[in-house]
């Protein structure tokens, strides 16, 4: 290994050009260098290998026995170095990569159905391990390398974390149809009077709905807080409860007793994102998965 410190990549490339061309001027042209510079490199190479490498004969320069022995392993070494430097190729159809994703219950329902259909047809060897986490936990897991991707809403994130918008989301309200007026909506006052379900993994953390309410100087009566969107939806029928949540979480509701209607006050739309640590930025398999998730969100909307 110590001998390698005496030689650099440029000298190896010069050696290959000289042994291939058997001519200093042609080697210089091939390397886009001056002839004196190549001649100087040849002198260095002769010292390193303790061999003339190229000797003059009547027909021109010829390779010494040592140079002839060097040529084949030198070409192999340069090919291997070139493969090392080039970006690795990724073939989704034959990949067996395992990815760790963190999503909320909402993200699982909004993204996974379409994504899994895509993976089963395009990359059947890829596997996913999905865990549920809030946004703060996802960011911490990304920083620690515990997950490969997080999907959710991230108004703030560390500079080491990249983000890509998957889709724009709106809020909607869900209630038992029998508890609503004929027009299927509620006034702001009637909405405030009703009991509410809050879906969050961290009950003490701020959420978009209550922040929007606070801007109006109002608050609502939350009688149930739980972490699962799907469970919350199943609790609405036969009660006067109201769930105000992301519209996509209600997209697959087929129960005729339930009715979806717009909130009676302004709640800003939000971007649903995928986030990853910068250490994964150039990973071809990771890039492919991010693209697959993005495409799945567009086709599944």
List the helices and strands and how they pair.
Elements: H1 9-21, H2 24-31, H3 35-49, E1 54-57, E2 60-63, H4 65-85, E3 98-103, H5 105-122, E4 127-132, H6 135-144, E5 149-152, E6 161-169, E7 171-176, H7 188-193, E8 195-199, H8 208-215, E9 221-226, H9 229-234, E10 242-246, E11 258-261, E12 270-277, H10 284-299
Parallel strand pairs: 3-4, 3-5, 8-9, 8-10
Antiparallel strand pairs: 1-2, 5-12, 6-12, 7-10, 7-11
The assigned structural class equals: alpha/beta
The third-level CATH topology of the largest domain is D-Maltodextrin-Binding Protein, domain 2
Task: State the helical fraction.
Answer: 40-55%
What Rg do the Cα atoms give? 32 Å
Second CATH tier, the architecture of the largest domain: 3-Layer(aba) Sandwich
Work out the strand percent.
15-25%
Unreliable stretches, pLDDT < 50, 5 or more residues? Answer: none
Account of the 3D structure:
Helix 8 links the parallel strand 8 and strand 9. The protein folds into three domains: 84 residues, Winged helix-like DNA-binding domain superfamily/Winged helix DNA-binding domain (Arc Repressor Mutant, subunit A); 99 residues, Periplasmic binding protein-like II (D-Maltodextrin-Binding Protein, domain 2, 3-Layer(aba) Sandwich); 98 residues, 3-Layer(aba) Sandwich (D-Maltodextrin-Binding Protein, domain 2). Helix 1 crosses helix 3 and helix 1 crosses helix 4. The chain is 40% helix and 22% strand. The chain is built from ten helices and twelve strands. The strands form three sheets. Strands 4-3-5-12-6 form a five-stranded mixed sheet, sandwiched between helices. Strands 9-8-10-7-11 form a five-stranded mixed sheet. A two-stranded antiparallel sheet has the order 1-2. Belongs to the LysR transcriptional regulatory family. GO terms for molecular function: DNA binding; DNA-binding transcription factor activity. This is LysR family transcriptional regulator.
């Amino acid at each position: 290994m110590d001998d390698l410190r005496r030689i650099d990549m440029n000298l190896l490339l010069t050696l290959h050009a000289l042994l291939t061309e058997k001519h200093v001027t042609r080697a210089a042209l091939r390397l886009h260098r001056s002839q004196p510079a190549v001649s100087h490199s040849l002198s260095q190479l002769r010292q390193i290998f303790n061999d003339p490498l190229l000797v003059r004969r009547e027909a021109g320069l010829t390779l010494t026995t040592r140079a002839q022995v060097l040529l084949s392993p030198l070409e192999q070494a340069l090919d291997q170095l070139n493969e090392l430097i080039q970006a690795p190729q990724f073939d989704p159809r034959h990949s067996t990569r395992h990815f760790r994703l963190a999503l909320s219950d909402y993200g699982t329902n909004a993204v996974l159905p379409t994504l899994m259909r895509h993976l089963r047809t395009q990359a059947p060897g890829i596997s996913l391990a999905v865990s549920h986490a809030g946004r703060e936990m996802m960011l911490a897991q990304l920083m620690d390398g515990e997950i490969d991707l997080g999907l959710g809403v991230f108004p703030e994130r560390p500079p080491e974390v990249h983000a890509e918008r998957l889709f724009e989301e709106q809020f909607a309200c869900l209630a038992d149809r029998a508890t609503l007026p004929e027009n299927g909506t509620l006034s702001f006052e009637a909405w405030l009077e009703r009991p509410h379900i809050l879906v969050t993994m961290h009950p003490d953390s701020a959420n978009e709905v209550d922040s929007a309410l606070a801007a109006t100087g109002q608050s609502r009566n939350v009688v149930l807080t739980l972490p699962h969107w799907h469970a919350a939806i199943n609790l609405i029928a036969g009660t006067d409860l109201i769930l105000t949540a992301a519209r996509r979480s209600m997209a697959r509701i087929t129960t005729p007793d339930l009715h979806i209607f717009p909130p009676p006050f302004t709640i800003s739309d939000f971007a649903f994102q995928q986030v990853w640590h910068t250490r994964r930025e150039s990973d071809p398999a990771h890039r492919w998965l991010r693209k697959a998730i993005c495409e799945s969100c567009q086709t599944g909307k």
